Amino acid sequence: MASKKKTRSSKARQGEVTATPRKSPYSPSAIREFILEVQAEFKKIVWPNRKVTAGLTGFVIVLVVILSFYLGSVDLLLGKLVSSILK
């Protein structure tokens, strides 16, 4: 039986890296493609309406005020405690 001889002429040899030309990410066509992709993604965003945005903003402001009073009072209490211990 005759054995088939493998040819490597059409395939890359093992250990060799085939050089594929890469497009520069800074080329005008790549920049344009990036901008088009960003625009497509922005069209997928669902923005909340004005009422929901105002409600959530108010909630965040109230929460920040409450937490700042709490942390301020804890800081004041611990500061007085430490200063009384050090005296």
Structural commentary:
- The protein has helices at residues 28-43, 50-86.
- It has 87 residues and is an all-alpha fold.
Give the topology, please:
Elements: H1 28-43, H2 50-86
Beta-strand percentage range: under 5%
Sheet with most strands: none
| Oligomeric assembly | single chain
Low-confidence stretches: none
Based on CA atoms alone, the radius of gyration comes out at: 33 Å
The helix content is 55-70%
Q: What is the H/E string? A: HH
State the shape: elongated
- Using DSSP, what is the number of strands? 0
Number of distinct helices: 2
Average pLDDT rating: 85
In short:
The chain is mostly helical and 87 residues long. It has helices spanning 28-43, 50-86.
Keywords:
mainly alpha; 2 helices; 0% strand
